[in-house]
Amino acid sequence: MAQEDVFKKIVSHCKEYGFVFPSSEIYDGLGAVYDYAQNGVELKNNIKQYWWQSMVLLHDNIVGIDSAIFMHPTVWKASGHVDAFNDPLIDNRDSKKRYRADVLIEDAIAKYEEKIAKEVAKAQKKFGDSFDEAQFRATNARVLENQQKRDALHERFAAAMNASDLDELKQIILDEEIVCPISGTRNWTDVRQFNLMFKTEVGSTAEGSSTIYLRPETAQGIFVNYLNVQKTGRMKVPFGIAQIGKAFRNEIVARQFIFRMREFEQMEMQFFVKPGTELEWFEQWKNTRMAWHQALGFGAENYRFHDHEKLAHYANAASDVEFRMPFGFKEVEGIHSRTNFDLSQHAQYSGKKIEYFDPELNERYTPYVIETSIGVDRMFLSVMCHSYQEEALENGETRVVLKLPAALAPTKLAVMPLVKKDGLPEKAREIIDELKFHFNCKYDEKDSIGKRYRRQDAVGTPFCVTVDHDTLTDGCVTLRDRDTMEQTRVKISDLRSLIEDKVSITSLLKKIK
Ligand code: ATP
């Protein structure tokens, strides 16, 4: 199946099975805004819990906060967002559609890469085991030509972005003969800068209102609380502050479902270190964060680091964790070495001294910062994309199963009476009443057992138990495993110990190496 079709299926699965709904759907929705439904909210909460615990529980030098979405407007002046949080946009005059100029060019770069990958795959098929990929890449004329075009374009693009040269971005689009996917024409406007922050008013206009912003990242809430947390928590450098919360960006192009939203959620951690040690910490946090991702068991080959060539002016290293989505490797998390830029800026704009007194060195300094910043929604999407599977069964049928990591699954155990009579529903409820304190259980009595299994597979429930007539006398139930579909007869009294460990967030945390 084409990857595009797979993605469409995942999007409709999210809606049909109560994971994600378009916002205000009865009014035809609102662009790039989504609501999490009954199953989605559980999965999302589990992802957040996994992240939070990996930061705050596993590190005794990391604490959490929950700062407000509204902040003093000068925060965004100091952070540089008012002046520089822009995307270059371009319109196609025929389709009247708006695009990000940088994304159009990045797509053109990706097309060269796809061409190369296709040549390599073709040759690999032809030569089989004897295929030497490195030699092929170094000698094949078509590969070399595309590689050279890709590199030249990439270099020109990076230079234009670094210089914020909007005319050059437009010229690249013209020279590369990039067409609008809707109209198919090259009738482009000039490229303009567009600030991504949403504005609103605080206070009534009669008393004089002022413009404030919806935060475009949660990080600034951490920076402005650095002193408060350091002092009240008696924190010693190196230490970190973690936060999960909503962020808002007026994205020009809303694409790819919950990958790019206008209201989304971030999980960010700012780690304050001694100047000069930041690059060591940067490497360490890259490893720690990759281990967090890989503990989910989605396969190391589906992740890669992408080091930034274009660094923000305040950063001295930056790398993204990319995950293989159906539409290619995409950023889910950014790890940035932000120097002391933010704390220094806030010190300058607020007039407050924002420093750390290092008792061991007997000196004061402004700490440097390593940031790890991951989008909850992108993480959610990567979990969905990897878990959604259509499996051919021996009887010729296909089952749709969400092979979610058990610790993230919305429901851990579905309890089903074989029939709706003879005391079986009561027995099933009794089991739930016992286990519901330990993990999320659901009762399900409608339709045949086969259909009920399929329904639970589709929402990723790792375990089902069936209560039958024998249960009433032998105290045993049939436990079915979602992935293997194996069924075993087990004692009701053993259920908790059989399941609890496998579905707990702790089981995931223990896998982080
Ligand atoms: P992109 O280049 O895709 O716009 P970014 O580099 O601007 O992302 P950051 O500012 O580093 O993103 O934000 C950190 C994380 O927040 C990203 O890795 C991503 O997971 C998430 N994120 C950023 N923008 C959005 C958005 N519009 N919708 C959903 N998640 C987002």
What does this structure look like?
The chain has 513 residues and is α+β, with helices and mostly antiparallel strands. Helices cover 40% and strands 24% of the residues. The protein contains 18 helices and 23 strands. β22 and β23 form a beta hairpin. It is globular. The model has no long low-confidence stretch (mean pLDDT 95). Adenosine-5'-triphosphate binds at residues 217, 249, 251, 260-261, 264, 266, 331-334, 373-375, 377-378.
Secondary structure: elements and pairs:
Elements: H1 3-16, E1 20-22, E2 34-36, H2 38-57, E3 62-64, H3 73-78, H4 81-84, E4 86-91, E5 98-100, H5 101-127, H6 133-139, H7 141-162, H8 166-175, E6 192-195, E7 199-202, E8 210-213, H9 219-223, H10 226-232, E9 239-248, E10 263-273, H11 278-294, E11 303-307, E12 317-325, E13 328-337, H12 341-350, E14 356-358, E15 363-365, E16 368-375, H13 376-387, E17 388-392, E18 398-402, E19 413-417, H14 424-435, E20 441-443, H15 449-458, E21 463-467, H16 469-474, E22 476-481, E23 487-491, H17 495-503, H18 505-509
Parallel strand pairs: 3-9, 19-20, 19-21
Antiparallel strand pairs: 1-2, 4-5, 4-6, 7-8, 9-10, 10-16, 11-12, 12-13, 13-16, 14-15, 17-18, 21-22, 22-23
The structure holds adenosine-5'-triphosphate.
Adenosine-5'-triphosphate (ATP) binds at residues 217, 249, 251, 260-261, 264, 266, 331-334, 373-375, 377-378.
